[in-house]
């Protein structure tokens, strides 16, 4: 007996799907901004910080990379109230996903920082730049260029990971879908539609990363000293 | 006061001594070539002068800044002591002009119009005025090294350090870099050069220092050092080079 697809009951809930989509985009966007900020700071501390800060950074990274995101989410949402910190589901979701991305991206950033030759750093220091200025003006952009594919891959994983926030009833797309499914009993149709929406969101985000990449690396070229004009992103005309 | 005075400089890597008590004075306008075999400590000594290498004993006074084990005020010193490296170390994501302007902008806060004048000035001094908007990987090794010299000049250093700056270049490109350095010497820049270019040391350096086993083995006016080496070690070193 063939199953007859019927999307009508699902499409009837379009407003909920749209608001779920917006919630997922907002949750992802906020978590990505906060998470990457954490990741960058932690990676710099781990590579170039005082010993205690490097150790603390390493501890954080290990703790969050070796526990499930779902458990982290439960800890923040169900666990913290016992020590007097009460977060809304949405806030707990942003915090957990940001901290999770912070740990993963810190390792990616660290790989990039370590890929920059020490001589580049020495050249910056010899010119009188502070360590922080060397980081900012000399190291970051070439380092980002090295790790950009890995980093944007991680961001896609993080975006899709926001669906886990439905487990604590944070408002986002999967929660909206689950509600629709439970009321229409159109499981196959509902989750097919959800999958299609997630694909659209990730593609939109990846397009955004690509554009950001073009801007970030508009003037960067492959490693120093390479005589061959290898593939590089288009460079601005003379400014 | 000399432009550079090194007193009893001692450095070791773990238990291995690399510099065993260096004393050296360089007057303003002096061009000092430092020669010696690999491992004799010459690059390490140079890198101590602007604090890239910490050291255990002794002191260095350069361009009026005192450097000791405390490593205080290192940035003030580095603003006035330029350094050029063997591997050029231009920043690959910045154009030639941006490479040159970076430190004057972020370290000295030089305004934009003055930065542009500065770029033109230092690039013309190294003969690359037309390359301001090029990127490092579009330049030959010799050109990159001349840009690195220009970048260092843009900080208006009182003393410049050159660490085997032609070792990565073929003879033709070596020539153009050495010519640039010779012009700086003529203009009165105080310089310390670690080099393997004996002919250049002899012609351009006012004084030559021969390092051996972590010590200054012999030093004097270049003409004398090369024509009448006093120690057997220097004699054999010069002889090896001629072969």
Automatic annotation (TrEMBL), chain A:
Gene Ontology CC: ATP-binding cassette (ABC) transporter complex
Gene3D superfamilies: MetI-like
One record GO biological process: amino acid transport
Pfam families given in the database record: BPD_transp_1
Localization terms from the record: Cell inner membrane; Cell membrane
Protein name, as recorded: ABC transporter permease
Topology relative to the membrane: Multi-pass membrane protein
Top-level taxon of origin: Bacteria
Keywords: Cell membrane, Membrane, Transmembrane, Transmembrane helix, Transport
Alphabetical list of NCBIfam families matching this protein: HEQRo_perm_3TM
Family label: Belongs to the binding-protein-dependent transport system permease family. HisMQ subfamily.
TrEMBL record, chain B:
Annotated ABC transporter domain residues: 4-238
GO cellular component terms, semicolon-separated: plasma membrane
Compartment list: Cell membrane
MF (Gene Ontology): ABC-type amino acid transporter activity; ATP binding; ATP hydrolysis activity
Key word Zinc-finger present: no
Protein's membrane topology: Peripheral membrane protein
Keyword vocabulary terms for this entry: Amino-acid transport, ATP-binding, Cell membrane, Membrane, Nucleotide-binding, Transport
SUPFAM superfamilies: P-loop containing nucleoside triphosphate hydrolases
Chief location category: membrane
Entry similarity comment: Belongs to the ABC transporter superfamily.
The protein's name: Amino acid ABC transporter ATP-binding protein
Organism per entry: Phyllobacterium endophyticum
């Amino acid at each position: 007996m063939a199953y007859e697809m019927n999307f009508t009951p699902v499409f009837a809930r379009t407003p909920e799907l749209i608001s779920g989509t917006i919630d997922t985009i907002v949750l992802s966007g906020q978590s990505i901004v906060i998470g990457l900020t954490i990741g960058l700071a932690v990676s710099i501390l781990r590579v170039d910080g005082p010993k205690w800060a490097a150790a603390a950074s390493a501890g954080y990274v290990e703790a969050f990379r070796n526990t499930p995101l779902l458990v982290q989410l439960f800890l923040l949402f169900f666990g913290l109230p016992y020590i007097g910190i009460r977060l809304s589901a949405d806030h707990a979701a942003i915090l957990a996903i940001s901290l999770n991305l912070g740990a993963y991206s810190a390792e990616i950033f660290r790989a990039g920082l370590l890929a920059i030759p020490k001589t580049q750093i020495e050249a910056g220091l010899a010119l009188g730049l502070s360590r922080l200025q060397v980081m900012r003006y000399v190291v970051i952009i070439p380092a980002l260029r090295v790790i950009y594919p890995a980093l944007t891959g991680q961001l896609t994983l993080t975006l899709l990971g926001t669906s886990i926030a439905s487990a604590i009833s944070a408002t986002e797309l999967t929660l909206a879908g689950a509600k629709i499914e439970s009321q229409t009993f159109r499981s196959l149709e509902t989750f097919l539609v959800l999958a299609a929406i997630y694909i659209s969101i990730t593609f939109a985000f990846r397009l955004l990363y690509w554009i950001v990449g073009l801007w970030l690396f508009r003037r960067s070229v492959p490693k120093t000293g390479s005589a061959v004009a290898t593939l590089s992103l288009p460079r601005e005309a003379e400014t | 006061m000399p432009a550079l005075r090194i007193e009893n400089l001692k450095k070791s890597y773990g238990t291995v001594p690399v510099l065993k008590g260096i004393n050296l004075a360089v007057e303003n306008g002096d061009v000092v070539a430092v020669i010696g075999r690999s491992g004799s400590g010459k690059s390490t000594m140079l890198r101590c002068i602007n604090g890239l290498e910490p050291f255990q004993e002794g002191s260095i006074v350069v361009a009026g800044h005192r450097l000791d084990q405390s490593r205080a005020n290192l940035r003030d010193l580095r603003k006035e002591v330029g350094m050029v490296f063997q591997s050029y170390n231009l920043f690959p994501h910045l154009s030639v002009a941006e490479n040159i302007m970076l430190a004057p902008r972020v370290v000295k806060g030089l305004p934009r119009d003055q930065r542009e004048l500065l770029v033109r000035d230092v690039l013309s001094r190294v003969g690359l005025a037309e390359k301001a908007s090029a990127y490092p990987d579009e330049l030959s090794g010799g050109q990159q090294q001349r840009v690195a010299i220009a970048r260092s000049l843009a900080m208006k250093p009182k003393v410049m350090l050159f660490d085997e700056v032609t070792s990565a270049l073929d003879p033709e490109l070596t020539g153009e870099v050495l010519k640039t350095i010779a012009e700086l010497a003529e203009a009165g820049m105080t310089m310390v050069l670690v080099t393997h270019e004996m002919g250049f040391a002899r012609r351009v350096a006012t004084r030559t220092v021969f390092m051996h086993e972590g010590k200054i083995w012999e030093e004097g006016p270049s003409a004398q050092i090369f024509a009448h080496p006093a120690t057997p070690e220097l004699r054999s070193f010069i002889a090896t080079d001629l072969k």
